[in-house]
Write a structure and sequence with these properties.
- The complex is a heterodimer of chains A (173) and B (137).
- Chain A has 173 residues and is an alpha+beta fold.
- Chain A is built from four helices and eight strands, in the order ββαααβββαβββ.
- A six-stranded mixed β-sheet of chain A has the order 3-4-5-2-1-8.
- In chain B, α3 packs across α4.
- Chain B has 137 residues and is mostly helical.
- The interface between A and B is medium-sized, with 33 and 33 residues.
């Protein structure tokens, strides 16, 4: 059975160079990025979490989301990618802060979706009980958002620096 | 009492210290400098990684802006790129003096202050609140 998901603009994370978004699953109290922050808040990673928030702001305000420089896409393939992705399909990328992994979608230099993640405990992230499920979830979300961009249910502004969508837009996952 | 999950950003931002801001800003500045030097040399990311004896993935992690770079790593980067990546205000003063361009009235601390003004700026968000305040949310 499908779970319905809505896109949320992260109003505390809107900067000149990058606008950040997340997704919220039906019946969940908060979006996935906030869920990640709430879970990490209970771990002994206060400094890493502070650095991550500052980094998100700095990238947003001063640098832009430069994919091959600030975000990585190694080791994020899962069984949902068993079939080779079509050319130019968007990919899940990750932000690393020591052992913390936060999975995201860099749509372009100006639009980034922050999903969920956790503390990686195994060499191969796919095998990690903490982050493995979030890699799979991120890959599914990336494919759906990619489709919504293609069908223009998520549309670009004139200069492709921001996206627009109906606030009631939801999709099944 | 259960915590207010929607207020997590407010709570976490209240715990951010000025040093977190300095760490990330300087880290990103180093990354940008390395990238500029790499481009100037016409090296690909793979070539830089090979010269450093690392994988591309390791270098991308090193220059992500979140890695705790060691002085040894920076020295290796400077050696391979053949250029300074970080320079202290005193080094700049010495170079300016040697070139005869140093403004004679400026002290080293004034020069450092001027050069580090960017890092001393008040952050856009209020990072100086104490953790205690945030925990009352």
């Amino acid at each position: 059975m499908n779970t319905f998901v809505q896109i949320e603009r992260l109003t505390d994370f809107q900067y000149q160079k990058v606008k950040y978004f997340s997704v919220r699953f039906e019946n969940n109290e908060v979006n996935e990025f906030f869920d990640f922050l709430n879970r990490m808040e209970d771990e002994e990673v206060a400094e890493d979490l502070s650095n991550l928030l500052v980094w998100i702001e700095e990238i947003g305000a001063n640098y832009g989301a430069i994919k091959n420089r600030f975000f990585r896409n190694e080791s994020i393939t899962t069984d949902v990618q068993a079939l080779p992705p079509p050319r130019k399909q968007m990919e899940t990328v990750e932000i690393l802060v020591e052992n913390i992994r936060l999975y995201c979608l860099v749509v372009n230099e100006h639009v980034v979706f922050l999903f969920n993640g956790g503390i990686k405990t195994t060499d191969d992230a796919k095998d990690c009980p903490n982050v493995g499920p979030y890699i799979k979830q991120a890959n599914q979300l990336v494919r759906k958002i990619d489709e919504l961009l293609k069908t223009k249910e998520i549309s670009w502004n004139e200069y492709q620096t921001d996206i627009e969508f109906n606030k009631d837009l939801e999709f099944g996952l | 009492m259960s915590k207010d999950k929607a207020a997590v950003v407010e709570r976490l931002k209240a715990n951010i210290l000025p040093e977190n801001y300095i760490f990330v800003r300087k880290n990103l500045a180093i990354s940008e400098q390395v990238e500029a030097l790499r481009n100037e040399k016409g090296w690909s990311q793979k070539e830089l990684a090979q010269k450093l004896g690392k994988t591309e993935s390791e270098v991308s992690r090193l220059l992500s802006g979140l890695h705790n770079l060691t002085l040894k790593s920076i020295a290796k980067l400077e050696a391979e790129l053949g250029s300074d990546i970080i320079t202290t205000p005193l080094e700049i003063r010495k170079k300016q003096e040697a070139a005869g361009t140093f403004p004679s009235k400026a002290s080293v601390s004034e020069l450092a202050e001027e050069l580090t003004e960017e890092y001393a700026e008040e952050p856009k968000t209020d990072y100086k609140k104490t953790g205690k305040e945030s925990k009352t949310n």
